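Teaching soon. Invent one.


***
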Amino acid sequence: MTDFLLVAWVSALIEITRFGWMFGLGERWTPGEKLKLLFAGYNGTRNTGSDVRVQEMLRQVRHVLGADHVDFSVMTQNFERTKGYFEGTRQVHLPDVYPPFLFREVRQNHGVIACEGSMFKSKFANALTTMMIGSLKTSFPSLMAARPATWTGLFNRCARVTSTILWSSLETWNRKRS
């Protein structure tokens, strides 16, 4: 029953956000403005691998887009446990009852990057799945409001850098195997 209510609550907030964009509410990203991105995940729970993965995602996206052109926020369960991570990034507390937080925080950003590795596992918690979908779906209208050509260029740049990183990683791995 709790999962049903949580899903219904987040679904309603997604629809409210969608209607708001249809009626001209919301802040659109424009070229030249710092791109505000929220990294959505379950950080600050003493899962070092998860926090390190997000740290590396922040570093790579900042490198591709340029530190002067971005303003990042990252969700955390506990500020004390993420001390030392996410340098140069605003940390925001993800409360246990998160729908109002999503509605408020996601709208303050131009987009959301999902950075929760376990969301691709078959044993994923329904509440966390709902949080990730809510994060992504409430940010979608602001991304679509930007010029498509701008986003195409952005994604092409990210893809080139990602390909380079993967290729370098594979070469290093192959050298170690030999």
The longest helix spans residues 148-177. Residues 2-171 form one domain. The first strand starts at residue 35 and ends at 40. Residues 6 and 97 are 9 Å apart (CA to CA).
